[in-house]
Design a protein that fits this description.
The chain is mainly alpha-helical. It has one domain. It contains four helices and no strands. Helix 2 crosses helix 4. The longest helix has 12 residues.
Length: about 100
């Protein structure tokens, strides 16, 4: 899941240095985008011990990524988080306040 190739030009985002440390880099990326429940469970299990899980989830929420497992959540779970939070939410603060840690 290497999105740094888009660089700062994509919507003004800087390169994502956190992804260099992501556990998912050791696995087939298709596992994180498979629509099957078994693959989703396996991907989420990998995310549990990821040292950059919070960074990954913050990115997915800020970018409103619809598909795949990001930061241990699927698209449905992220959409619910977005819907239940006010516009302009500081996602890092919000995530840490509900107890999600890397």
């Amino acid at each position: 899941m290497n999105y740094s190739r888009f660089g700062a030009g994509l919507l003004g985002w800087a390169e994502m240095s956190w992804e260099e440390q992501a556990r998912c880099r050791q696995y087939d990326p298709e596992m994180f985008f498979a629509p099957r429940a078994r693959a989703e469970r396996k991907a989420k299990t990998i995310c549990v011990k990821c040292p950059v899980k919070v960074d990954c989830l913050v990115f997915a929420l800020q970018a409103k990524v619809e598909f795949g497992i990001w930061g241990g959540t699927n698209g449905k779970e992220r959409r619910a988080m977005i819907r239940s939070s006010p516009v302009g939410t500081d996602w890092r603060e919000e995530i840490q306040s509900i107890g999600v840690t890397a």
